[in-house]
Design brief:
It is built from 10 helices and no strands. It has 193 residues and is mainly α.
Amino acid sequence: LAANQNIPEAQFNLGVIYLYGLFAPYDINKAIHYFSLASNLGFQKAQYFLGCIYLFGYGIEKNVKKGIFYLTLSSKGNVISAHYILGSLYHEGKYINCDIKKAIMHYKEASSFNNQYAKNNLGVIYKNGFGSEVEKNIGYAIELFNEAINQKEDLLAMYNLAHLYIYDYDNNKQNLDNAIGLLIKVKVIDKDI
């Protein structure tokens, strides 16, 4: 009833119900229908879900152009995961032209909301630099990896920081000990998963 009265939250929730088959049979077409209704009313989470459905082809044929369109809409509403995905697409040059400045902008937006994956990817960019566009900044990379580790114990950030300490940073005993400690922690946590 609420969805029929154009309440976007209700339309979004019905989309989730049909997408995941919660309390009703899975139906991707009904999910898309309700997400589209909510999206047309400016509901950014519905735009994010539509973006993912189209970009990754969840239950339908991929439509990259539509996926990026909806993800871009939702990123304008500061949906953190949309920023992260768009950052990854611009970073990798997958489906769209590589644009490291746009990648960094989206990663920084997601990172400002404590998305550890965005922090890790920013760390990688600054650890290596990016051609003439981004200068290598080891200190900033270390800071970003540490933030991802401290916030969410991110395993990939632990590995990347250990790698940086071993191969790209002052090769003193303290840094090597830190690297070994991180790698042991990755192994222990990974084993528990």
